[in-house]
Amino acid sequence: MDWETLYKQRTTSAEEALKHISNGSRVVSGHAAGEPSYLLTVMSEHKEWYQDVEICHMVSLGKNEYCQKGMEGHFRHNALFVGANTKQAVSEGRGDYTPCFFYEVPRLFETEIPVDVALIMVTPPDQHGKVSLGVSVDYTRAAAKNAKIVIAQVNDQMPYTYGDSQMDVSEIDYFVEHSAPLPELKPAVLGDVEKAIGANCASLIHDGDTLQLGIGAIPDAVLLSLKGKKDLGIHSEMFSDGVVELVEAGVITNKKKELLPGKMVANFLMGSKRLYDFVDHNESVAMYPADFTNDPVVIAKNDHIVCINSSVQINLMGQACSESIGLKQISGTGGQVDFIRGASMAKNGIAILAMPSTAAKGKISKIVPLLDEGAAVTTSRNDIDYVVTEYGIAHLKGKTLRDRAKALIKIAHPDFRADLIQTFEERFHCPYEA
Ligand code: COA
């Protein structure tokens, strides 16, 4: 059968498609700006159709109606990354968190976390009967590949991307046409602290390096400090508007990359409409699944990779918690460790954890003697490499516990250094000499 006839036959209403989800099944939904929010909203509106349906995903930018109060018994959320709209459900017991590395998630959907139904968002089909997963290839492609049923929201506002982001119409069971703008992120507000951190990170970045950057104020501040560099490249889990600006300024050319030269590599994209327009049918953007982009062995093929991520709290040994406040899960491991390990395996790679020295408007030091009780160790002391705050750079790899503590105290906020020095002197039985 030709793809056009197949597409027509399989196109239906959300209600009809979603009736195929059975009680007790696991539904995996697409990631971040690629979340098929319309399908999830329609499911939630018809909660009485469902009993014990697990809804599993990583970053969500939607309303997450299915994990609000009143949905118990109908839906249960399984977070592989906790977001702003899901953290309350997880902390109040209406959802669960499953620890994982991002690079492993596609494989988990083949093995330990089998998928009954994948809810995805795609572009309308092109002239060859291929749809694109657009801004979310990450684990979404693997979820769709391994699911018993695939339901796609066809959104004509989803950018068409290349790389490994296309699926054949025949791989999807139900198409639900629904046009909606992709969620947009507001630009981060950059204060003096973020700008100082950005400048410190930029001092570790050289012409020709390949970058991995996360999202938020610190990555944006780093990008802002890179305007004088040349021939930078991108091999990242995701990227946002700051990268577009540097491409347009001629700073990011991807020319010097060892792996996929000329291409900006990512597994998902999140930003403003400017970003979504930039990546649409853009041959220089290559979207791949997370088991490729985030595989430390693949990352290590970029000889000069610089990875910049952030953290909640780091203790004086260099153990970093980047995903919880004590026992309260506020985000996830995501790709942090994937990239830190990839960078350490690369020829000249470096991995930076960059963060303000304090939280809670200066009341809490993020550099601490011990992690809070219950805090998850995201990046272990064996993996940690550079830590950057607005006060400077601490290079921890290969250093003794004593030298690590000294280096971290130097970049802690001055208001907290006396307490840290006291811990240092008690722990190491020697005076602290700056
Ligand atoms: N003690 C208490 N609270 C703290 C804290 C600390 N040491 N550090 C941060 N917080 C609070 C902040 O005050 C903020 O609270 P609010 O939401 O009530 O305002 C919250 O935790 C988030 O902190 P913030 O600094 O605003 O977060 P961010 O947006 O810069 O993100 C991480 C920082 C660490 C949460 C984020 O980088 C992350 O999730 N990392 C893990 C995943 C990762 O690295 N992935 C790879 C890159 S895509």
Automatic annotation (TrEMBL):
<dbReference type="InterPro" id="IPR038460">
    <property type="entry name" value="AcetylCoA_hyd_C_sf"/>
</dbReference>
<dbReference type="GO" id="GO:0008775">
    <property type="term" value="F:acetate CoA-transferase activity"/>
</dbReference>
<keyword id="KW-0808">Transferase</keyword>
<dbReference type="GO" id="GO:0006083">
    <property type="term" value="P:acetate metabolic process"/>
</dbReference>
<comment type="similarity">
    <text>Belongs to the acetyl-CoA hydrolase/transferase family.</text>
</comment>
<dbReference type="InterPro" id="IPR026888">
    <property type="entry name" value="AcetylCoA_hyd_C"/>
</dbReference>
<feature type="domain" description="Acetyl-CoA hydrolase/transferase C-terminal">
    <location>
        <begin position="271"/>
        <end position="422"/>
    </location>
</feature>
<dbReference type="InterPro" id="IPR003702">
    <property type="entry name" value="ActCoA_hydro_N"/>
</dbReference>
<feature type="domain" description="Acetyl-CoA hydrolase/transferase N-terminal">
    <location>
        <begin position="6"/>
        <end position="179"/>
    </location>
</feature>
<dbReference type="InterPro" id="IPR037171">
    <property type="entry name" value="NagB/RpiA_transferase-like"/>
</dbReference>
<dbReference type="InterPro" id="IPR046433">
    <property type="entry name" value="ActCoA_hydro"/>
</dbReference>
<dbReference type="Pfam" id="PF02550">
    <property type="entry name" value="AcetylCoA_hydro"/>
</dbReference>
<dbReference type="Pfam" id="PF13336">
    <property type="entry name" value="AcetylCoA_hyd_C"/>
</dbReference>
<protein>
    <submittedName>
        <fullName>4-hydroxybutyrate CoA-transferase</fullName>
    </submittedName>
</protein>
